[in-house]
Specification:
about 55% helix, alpha/beta, disordered N terminus, single chain, 18 helices, eight-stranded mixed β-sheet, disordered C terminus, about 450 residues
Length: about 450
């Protein structure tokens, strides 16, 4: 079973081979295979001659395991075993380390140490809402600025909405421009007695209330952090805006990854519409774990009916019918139309009595009751037919969901990746995914 002809195929190899393609961003809802897709794209691009780095934000560390690396961290590590003239490097975002690097790069040593040791900064850099997405964009900007790799493949964070990755700069800007931050920054900007007077007047009511809820030490930590970071806030916004423009540039391609399920494709449709609204270049949709069958011409209804016939012993199970009965009754060498010989004229068979007595012996006397009889050929065949019927129902359901998506977005090219029998855990598995992404599955329609 194949995709609706209205859906244009996504040509993955030309996208990977194009020297103008410098960034590929894999986005989609959780659990659809973004990490595996990103890694497979990296392997295929490297083995086709490009120098690639894959940036993952997946905490499950599956990418490291599949690439034969003990662990990934904030530094790109080369992957061994790549077949071809290219290179593959992989890394996993260390959110706090990336934040620390920004502080160290844009503040003098004394101020950097004051920031890094600040309790509020340590909480912010380790788990503040949106920090992971923002730091992913920061790391992407750093990698692109180094101009060391031909291609950067990004596996977006496993957040509730995959497009939080795009919203991070705006949310950070809103946080930095918020009234609370501006109020905390004001004393440091005014300085001297005026600043202290402003602090005493402007903060007295707020600190009285928040101090009871959060503690006075927390507010002092926030004020110290804001005062130290004041000169860096503008740099955060500037870099975030630059990375956002980089994502909109022609050298970037977004791939929406989904599974052939209703909820996943509904999310994929939302991502497609949102990317279009943001002016992000969409390359296409990767549809993962698509099921197929080598016997698709046998429908679920016919397979189920055949299974019922076998299980109930209907005519389909009766062999040669009346011809077999007549041949069994007729003597050897006689004509089928000849009359039956009288019983007395038949030559007695000395073994007939023993066969008859054996056949009439109760099963309990001839078999071990503790040993169950193996299923018959008919039972096995009926079971296989029912499995096939279930598979064909899955295929039909997946086809309907794909058709709904392609009817809604016929302009989006689609690459279909057939399901594998097991999990991907090594380079060979990633190569197989890459082959299927490129439409080179040696056995189309199988799973």
């Amino acid at each position: 079973m194949t995709l609706d002809p209205a859906a244009a195929p996504l040509e993955v190899d030309p996208l990977l081979d194009d020297p103008q393609t410098r960034i590929i961003v894999c986005c989609g809802s959780g659990g659809v295979g973004k990490t595996t897709t990103a890694a497979a794209l990296g392997v295929r691009a490297a083995e086709r001659g490009r120098k690639v780095v894959v940036l993952t934000i997946d905490p499950a560390r599956r990418l490291a395991q599949s690439m034969g690396i003990d662990s990934l961290d904030n530094t790109p590590r080369q992957v061994k075993g790549i077949e071809g003239s290219g290179e593959l490097h992989a890394m996993m975002l260390d959110m706090k380390r990336t934040f620390d690097e920004i502080v160290e790069a844009h503040a003098d040593p004394d101020r950097a140490r004051a920031i890094l040791d600040n309790p509020f900064y340590q909480s912010l850099s380790a788990g503040f809402a949106g920090t992971q997405e923002y730091m992913a964009m920061e790391k992407l900007g750093q990698l692109r600025a180094r101009d060391e790799w031909d291609l950067i493949v990004v596996d977006t964070p496993p957040s509730r909405s995959a497009l939080d990755f795009l919203d991070a700069p705006k949310r950070l800007g809103s946080f930095l421009d918020g009234k609370f931050i501006r109020l905390l920054m004001a004393p440091a900007k005014m300085g001297g007695r005026a600043g202290m007077k402003f602090l005493n007047v402007g903060m007295s009511m707020m600190t009285g209330t928040l101090g009871k809820l959060l503690g006075g030490q927390f507010l002092r930590d926030v004020q110290t952090f804001v005062a130290a970071m004041d000169t860096m806030f503008g740099g955060f916004r500037t870099r975030a805006d630059a990375t956002y423009r980089l994502l909109q540039a022609p050298g970037t391609a977004f791939l929406v990854v989904a599974a052939p399920e209703r909820d996943a494709l509904r999310e994929a449709a939302y991502f497609v519409e949102r990317l279009a609204a943001e002016g992000m270049p969409l390359a296409g949709l990767v549809l993962n774990r698509v099921h197929g069958s080598g016997a698709a011409r046998l429908s679920a209804e016919r397979a189920r009916a055949a299974a019922e016939n076998l299980e109930e012993g209907r005519i389909v199970d009766q062999g040669r019918g009346k011809d077999g009965v007549r041949e069994a009754a007729a003597p050897a060498g006689s004509s089928p139309d000849a009359p039956e010989a009288p019983a007395a004229s038949r030559t007695p068979d000395p073994h007939e009595e023993s066969r008859t007595s054996t056949s009439q012996t109760p099963a309990s006397q001839t078999s071990d009751p503790s040993i169950s009889e193996p299923p018959s050929v008919n039972q096995l065949t009926a079971g296989l037919l029912r499995l096939h019927a279930e598979r064909m129902q899955v295929l039909k359901r997946e086809q309907r969901t794909r058709d709904r998506f392609t009817a809604l977005h016929p302009e989006v090219p689609v690459a279909e990746v057939s399901a594998l029998p097991g999990d991907v855990h090594d380079l060979t598995g990633l190569r197989t995914i890459g082959i299927r992404l490129a439409g080179e599955d040696p056995v189309p329609g199988t799973s």
